Automatic annotation (TrEMBL):
Keywords: Heme, Iron, Metal-binding, Oxidoreductase, Peroxidase
Pfam families named in the record: Peroxidase_2
Family (UniProt): Belongs to the chloroperoxidase family.
Cofactor section: heme b
Record GO terms (molecular function): metal ion binding; peroxidase activity
Top-level taxon of origin: Eukaryota
Span of domain Heme haloperoxidase family profile: 19-184
InterPro entries linked to this entry: Chloroperoxidase, Chloroperoxidase-like_sf
Protein's UniProt name: Heme haloperoxidase family profile domain-containing protein
Annotated transmembrane regions: none
Length: 184
């Protein structure tokens, strides 16, 4: 006998019908430099086409998918305001605009002047993992990555190079950092 209205779908039925939040990789042409928001679109918590997204949709996605509370979700979402169009929406690709929120010296994305500041770069992730010397990625290893990336920006004239000049306790030697607190 057929029944209707069951709240729980059997896994095989769910698979056949498609889960709203299943992973479907979006076209990179419709994605920005933030892996977090890209993932929310790939999982259907934000419009999968990455376009015409309202700030309220972002806030709701952060709360429902990542269980953020409203003040945190709102604070993060507010940073998108400069990207919003007249129709009160934005596209993930708008986030590529340089020095609005996107910046140089990212961990896994190239700098703006290199032409593509949004595509994930596997070699850059490998370098981030290497900073952890074969161990787990920690705050300390990420600090090392941060300084390394700032130094590269400094060396090649990127926009965040000036941060290195002010970085307390670090000296630049041909792209290498020494004198900081992260050396053993
Ligand atoms: C409204 C919320 C958010 C906004 C407006 C936002 C915005 C951005 C922007 C503009 C970037 C690029 C910065 C750069 O140039 O390096 C970025 C990077 C990043 N975002 Fe988000 N983001 C949000 C939420 C999230 C969430 C929820 C996650 C994780 C679950 C996340 C993870 C990351 C990571 C790991 C990066 C660094 C990528 C890298 O350096 O290679 N973000 N985000």
């Amino acid at each position: 006998m057929l029944t209707f209205g069951s709240r729980q779908q059997k896994p095989e039925v769910k698979q056949l019908l498609g889960d709203n939040h299943s992973y479907i990789r979006g076209n990179i042409a419709t994605r920005g430099p933030c892996p977090g928001l890209n993932a929310l679109a790939n999982q259907g918590y934000l419009p999968r086409n990455g376009n015409n997204i309202t700030l309220s949709e972002v806030e709701t996605a952060l709360m429902s998918a990542l269980h953020m509370d409203k003040p945190l979700a709102s604070a993060l979402t507010n940073s998108l305001k400069p990207l919003v169009h007249k129709d009160k929406t934005f596209n993930l690709a708008d986030m590529r605009q340089h020095n609005i929120i996107e910046h140089d010296a990212s961990f896994t994305r190239l700098d703006f002047r290199q032409g593509d500041n949004y595509t994930f770069q596997p070699l850059m992730l490998q370098a981030l993992l290497a900073d952890a010397d074969g161990g787990p990625v920690t705050v300390k290893s990420l600090a090392k990555t941060y300084v390394r990336r700032l130094c590269v920006a400094f060396e090649y004239g990127g926009d965040r190079g000036e941060v290195v000049e002010g970085a307390d306790g670090y000296v630049l030697h041909g792209g290498e950092v020494s004198g900081g607190g992260f050396e053993e």
